[in-house]
Design a protein that fits this description.
Blueprint lengths: L6 H13 L3 E4 L2 H7 L13 H7 L14 E4 L2 E4 L4 H12 L4 H13 L2 H11 L2
Parallel strand pairs: 1-3
Antiparallel strand pairs: 2-3
Helix pairs in contact: 4-5, 5-6
């Protein structure tokens, strides 16, 4: 994410954030956003705060770092590598793809493996 070949996608992400479009970054992708200064003034997360500060001299957003698996802040969603499921949930919610009932059943099923939530998920899709 710090290589020059990522420049186009990171410029696009900056443009998207400025225009209110959704940007979602997980794991190392958060480092690319940090290096562009895009996380210096809004709530975010990543693998660890030291990961961001040790890899980029452009990071000054430590006060906005949240020690959570995933963080959703308006049109920005960030996650640690361990937060992929919650990150996906936040993206699905922002895109308004399914009802809140379906999303919650999906999340509970995949986060717990409990078959009751699978039943709730299927039932919610037929509603």
């Amino acid at each position: 994410w710090l290589d020059e070949e990522q420049e186009n996608v990171l410029t696009l992400a900056a443009d998207f954030l400025q225009s209110g479009k959704l940007v979602a970054a997980i794991c190392g992708a958060t480092l690319g956003l940090v290096d562009k200064g895009l996380l210096n003034n809004r709530p975010h997360t990543s693998n660890a705060p030291f990961f961001l500060s040790s890899m980029s001299e452009n990071y000054s957003g430590q006060a906005y770092y949240r020690d959570d698996l995933a963080v959703s802040d308006n049109n920005l969603i960030t996650a640690s590598s361990a937060g992929s499921l919650l990150w996906a949930k936040y993206i699905i919610e922002k895109l308004d793809l399914y009802s809140a009932t379906t999303i919650e059943a999906w999340y509970r099923y995949f986060s717990t493996g409990d078959p009751q939530y699978y039943g709730q998920l299927l039932a919610s899709l037929s509603e």
